[in-house]
Amino acid sequence: MTSSPARDEPAQTDELAAREATLVARARSGEVQAFETLYRLHLRPLYGLCWRLCDGDARRADQATQDSFIKAWEKLPGFRADSKFGTWLHRIAVNQVLGEYRLLRRWTSFEDAPPEPAPRVGDAERSDLRCDLEAALARLPKGARAVLILHDVEGYKHEEIAELTGIAVGTSKAQLHRARKLMKEQLQ
Known about the structure:
The chain is mainly alpha-helical. The chain has eight helices and no strands.
């Protein structure tokens, strides 16, 4: 009798969590190879987050990803494991990218005008929905895009977004509503 994939999935998740916890403990004790393994496990998702938050700018996303891993290595002794390592690492990356915005004073307004919409493409070219989504996301105003990514993609609550970005909870909710509306219009 074979087990179903759905039954195997929680066991695999538990195994991965246990493996990651072991790697984190070894890295916290200074084992560089354990941190390198954590780096390889989390590089792609972290880069994807940074890329979306950096408006698709690969150079800035690369820099933010690397800076996030450096900060994680430096702060690893203080990691209390209240959350998963990946969640903690994502928080560092979000703070890294948003800190850059604040530093460069690009984060001064959540009311920036959206860029000109890209020309609509024919149905034959719409086969890659992911590209359409990424393009629509890139056309959102900075504030709306950041809130949409943090809330809908990364799963942050409005209170957390407000704390991370320095905006009010109500502004976060309004920006999410605005972003969803603009995305819907662009994808129709």
